[in-house]
Structures are given as structure tokens and as C-alpha cells.
Please model this.
Amino acid sequence: MTQAKVKILSKQVVKKMDKKSEISKSAKDAIVSKKNVKLAGKKSPSKVKAQVEEEIMLQPPRGMRDLLPGDQPYWSQLRRVLARISLEYGFGRIDTPTVEYSNLFIRSIGKGTDIVDKEMYAFTTKGGDRVALRPELTAGLGRAYIQHGMNVLSKPVKLFSTGPVYRYDRPQEGRYREHFQANFDAFGEQDPILDAQLIQLAHRVVTSIGIKNIQFQVNSIGCPKCRKEYQNLLVAYFDSKKQKLCLNCKKRLETNPLRILDCKEDKCIQVSALAPQSVDHLCIECRVHFKSLLEYLDELDLPYIINPSLVRGLSYYTKTVFEIWSGDEEGKKHSLGGGGRYDHLIEQIGGEHTPAIGFGLGMDRLVQEMKRVHAKMYIEPKPRVFLAQLGDMAKKKSLNVFAELQKNGILTAESFGRGSLKSQLRVADRLGVEITLIIGQKEALDETVIVKDMVSGTQETVNHERLIIAVKKILKSNVVVSHCEE
RNA sequence: GCGGGUAUCGUCUAACGGUUAAGACAUCGGUUUGUGGUACCGAGAAUUAGGGUUCGAUUCCCUGUACUCGCCCCA
Model:
């Protein structure tokens, strides 16, 4: 942002604030309440906070949240696992923009889906482009695949990506308007062994972060050819039972009849139970594909069930679809991710025919599960040395001493803003460091440092040049703390 | 988008319609000027916002907001 812009902006803010405070002042005067008497002479910070909150919003927009330092060990652990496994399975990392043209999503995910019709963060830019915050990762990956001519690479082209995705949904536990997904996609291979391999990969990720009690649900929704025939059958069936369906499903009969199978209304479940199932109406090719996938899965010994009503909300899927669920002690199920084959997506958005398969994992939900099962997590290395300073001259020296320690690989904590040695030692003690280095007026003049062993309480004064060696010597004699807790 | 529940210091919890809105934990400072723990002392810190009922509202009613649960949908 240019300086001029900043100036204009801050002017506007000031103006706005003046206006607001005027309003609130007059409103308060009008009331002449006892509360004001109470407030007289005492500036209530809460009122100030409320006012600021109103003006600049001390909260992110709905459905957005902060991932605080306390959460980060879980996220680090998850990212490490993802990075390792993507490498093992030969997936190359790719990052695509958060914003794409709206049409990309409309063409790929499909009109009539909730994601596109109701949940997209779509807007028009100043330049008049119709764009949207990505509601999922696959569309952007497909676009990048075509744009960069990845079809010339040796197949399958395996891509791994993580990042935020956006859906204008009603927030709930484990559901946010901005959430993070990890996506694995393989382009250019139609063999069902890929389907099985991706499910295996998903299983490895989920179990590697310590989540147990996983179940895969798989289904085949066929190719455009057999699905069309099946869909006709289904529509005919539901049409005959139309009066027994819920209002929503009556509409779905026109727009997206497959989704009726997914409806949670009792009466619809009853009707769906007797409906023709997609697995019974697959064409030969799709049936063979599904059958061999199941054979691979049996071979892998993965916990899976066939769920004939599994449909998924994105219309680009063909043949294989699957979801990953975890269950807790109370029998509640949590959806962790899902995916499937999308053999026609690439040509739908302008590429050559490219069979492909992929899946997404909800990282927020994985973290949630990690917390629930108390999964082991990555422990950041803790500083084992504290640097304390006393007096102006020492304070000036301390920055350089600090930098020197870090350069030598000695992770050091400090609290330079504090004045008294007492309060600094208190911090050092709380941090549980093994050594505290003290520089006072005298030491600053003599070019020395006091090295205090926090365990024994003994201390010695050493010359500047010998500082690093002396510190390392004490650290080495102490028991080395493991960085990763098992 | 629809329905239910909840809302007090940073966190967790108190307060028959009348209290200076209390406590614990956490934070910061101090207990003689250059040494940690404990203890002790002190400080800052809240009624989600706006209306209404009432002599008087944290408490009762309405509206907004946020969170939360279920639905819808999804990861």
C-alpha cells in the first residue's frame, strides 16, 4: 500500500470514530442515567473495548478463527506426516491460488450443487472479473494441470496440495467458513489400483497421526453412460413414491435425484431403502472397475464398508467415491475426508480426456481428532539458556550476546524489557532453563559474563571468548532432553 | 437458510430484583538498592450490544450479535 493511501485510510478512520463517539455521547446525555453517574470520573476499559469492537471489529468474521500458538504443535505434527507420506507415495507439492474465476468452479463442481449454488464466496473484482474463493482444491489443481501442460509428464501425475478453502456455511463444531484441506490427486491413470492406493494413503495419514477407529465407506456411482440409465430408473422409482418424500427431496427429484439417497429424513430413508442401487446398474466397465477395487481393498485389509447411498455433493465424480469416518467412544461419527474418481473433469474444464482420482482431508477435523484421542504431537525445542541483563551498559551489550548464542546453536530465552534481576531470574526459573547468563555493569566493563548453573545454583565468571564453550560444556553434562515425545 | 440452548475479568466459577459485582488460576509489581522456589502484600482486569418492565436489572421481557447443538450440507 502506498503512503498516500495509508494517510487517506487513517483519515477516514478518524472521521468515522469522531462521528461514532459523537453519537454515543449524545445518546448517553439523553439518557441521563444512573449508570453515567457511576461511570463519572472512572473510564471503564470495557466501554472503550466495546466501542473499539464496534468500530474495528475485534473479532474475525463469522466462521473464521485463529489458530493460536497452543494449537500449532498439532498442526506441525499433521503437516510433517503429510509431507512425509506425500513423498513416500510420489506426490509433488503444488500450491494454487486461493482465488479463481467463478466459472472454473461452476463448470467443475456443477450447478445444482449446494457448494456452488449456496456456499460460494463469489464476488466481482474492481476490474469486473467474476471470481470466487475456492470452495475446494481439486478444480484449481485441474486447471493448473492443463495450463502447465502436465499431460506431457509421465503418468500418473501425482499432486499434493494443502491450503484454506471457503464455504459460506453455518458454522458448527468442526465446521468453519475457512478451513484447511489436504488434497492428494493423481491424473492420467484409470487403473483401479490407483483408487485403492489413494485409499491406502488416506489410511496411512490418518493412522500415522494416531487416530484409530477409522472406517472407509466406498461406493461406485458409475460413468456418465450407466449413471444416466440408473438415474432414469431412480427418478421413475421416486416419482412413483413422490407423495412419501420430504419437501426438499421433491425438489431434488428435478435437480439432483441422486442426493435423495443421502436424505436423513425418516420417510425418505424408508423410500430410499427399496430404491434401485447404483452398484446393481453399472455398465460392464464400471462393474469390473468397482469389483477389482474391492479386491484390492480386501487384499489391503482396510476397514471398509460398501455404502450404496454414498453419493457426494460434487457432480464431477465418476465410478469410485469414498469417505473416511472416525468413531468416538459415544458412537458418534466424524467425517474426516472423502474423494473419488473424476475421469471427465479435465475435459469438462477444457483439457484432453484424462482419467483422474483424488481425495481431500479436512485438516481442522484431523486436528480435532488428534486432540480428542490425545495423539502424540511435535514438541518444539525449548530454550535451555536464559540471558539476563542489568543496567544500561549491559542492556546494550545483551542484544549482541544473544545473537551470538543463537548463531552457535544455543537456543536462548530473554526478557530484556524487565529491569530487576530478580524478576528476570523468576522468568528463567519458570522457563525451566539450565543456565542463566548474567551481564551487569561490572561484567559489561570487564567483557565477562556470569554463567549460573540453575540446577546447582553455582556460578562462575567467564571471559567473553570462553562463553560459548563454557555454556556448551554445562549443557553437554546435563541429560539431553528428547525433542519428540513418544 | 430453519429450529433449540448459552452469554459475568485473559481462563474457570460466585452474586433471594438492592453487593463498592466476589473468588481462584493466570498476568504485572513489591517484600531495602546485583540472584530463582514457597510465603506474604499490592495492582490491573468482567456483567455480549441495544431497547423495555421496575424506585432499582448481572438477574425478568424483546431485538441484534457471537458461540453451541440439531436440520440442511459438507471437510
